[in-house]
Amino acid sequence: MALAQGACPLKLVFGAGNGSFGGLTEVRLTADSACPGFLDAVEGVYSSPAGFAPWSYLGPQEVSEPQAASVCLETVRLGFPDRVIRLYRSSPSPAELAVNLGGLELNGRLLSTGDANGRCFDPSACGPGRHDGGDGWCVESGRCSPGYRLSASGDCSP
Q1: Which of 85, 93, 137, 143 is most exposed by smallest CB count within 10 Å?
Q2: d(Cα 72, Cα 92) in Å, to the nearest integer?
Q3: Can you tell me whether residue 151 is helix, strand or coil?
Q4: Beta strand segments in 19-123, E
């Protein structure tokens, strides 16, 4: 999904990040001279390391036909957590950009496709230094997803 046409395009890619469990998998900002506040020295393509999540889904929690191969959902809203995502530029020289998508909200129609026999979330797939943030999203160890708190045992609960 590209959020801008022309100046300062922001691209967000959603996909499976943990088996059949989805998330925000890529963020890419193309900053050129048309972007306000981007001087020549900081222009370039900034992108995320793989695997961003969670995002706050404000739409329907269930589809009208659970066994259907695909369903078109109307008036879906996606919000994003109020937290910094680091984007990196490799060329012409390495650079880092901190962005916060907390005020961004996407609205529209969503084609929902899936497998009724899909796998459940597997926290072991989070990788080293990450764990289940309480809502099935992988987060850094010692942190929890928004709305969850860290217990003394290191688990996240509502």
Answers
A1: 93
A2: 42
A3: coil
A4: 21-31, 44-47, 56-57, 70-79, 84-89, 95-100, 105-113
Taking the C-alpha atoms of residue 141 and residue 128, their distance in angstroms, rounded to an integer, is 9
Residue-wise pLDDT tens digits, 101-111: 888 887 887 77
Measured CA to CA, the distance from residue 65 to residue 54 in angstroms comes to 25
Residue at 68: amino acid letter: A
Distance CA 87, CA 49 (A): 7
The tokens describing 56, both together, are 């706050």
Q: How confident is the model at residue 22 (pLDDT cuts 50, 70, 90)?
A: low
Question: Cα–Cα distance between 63 and 111 in angstroms, integer?
Answer: 10
Q: What is the pLDDT of residues 48-95, one digit of tens each?
A: 876 555 565 666 666 666 666 777 777 777 777 788 888 999 888 899
Rounded CA gap, 46 and 39, in Å? 14
Q: Report the candidate in 131, 106, 115 with the shortest Cα–Cα distance to residue 4.
A: 106
CA distance 75 to 78: 10
